[in-house]
Amino acid sequence: MTLPMSDPRLVPIAQKVEAGERLSRDDARVCFETSDLLSLGALADSANRRKNGNQVFFAANQHINPTNVCVLRHTCVFCSFARTAKEEGAYTRSLDEVFAEAEAAADNPTREFHIVGGLHPRLRLSYYADLIRGLKERHPDVHVKALTAVEIAHLARIERTTTRRVLEELKAAGLDTLPGGGAEVFGAAVRATIADRKLVAEDWLRVHREAHELGIPSNCTMLYGHVETIQDRVEHLAMLRDLQDETRGFLTYIPLAYHPDHNELGRELGREGTATTGMDDLKNVAVGRLFLDNVAHVKTHWPMVTAFVSQVALHFGCDDVEGTVVYERVYHEAGAHTPMALSYGDVVRLIRGAGKEPVERDSFYRPVRQFAPDDPIFTPVATPAASAHAEAELVQLVGTGRA
Ligand code: V47
Question: Domain limits of the chain?
Answer without folding.
Answer: 47-394
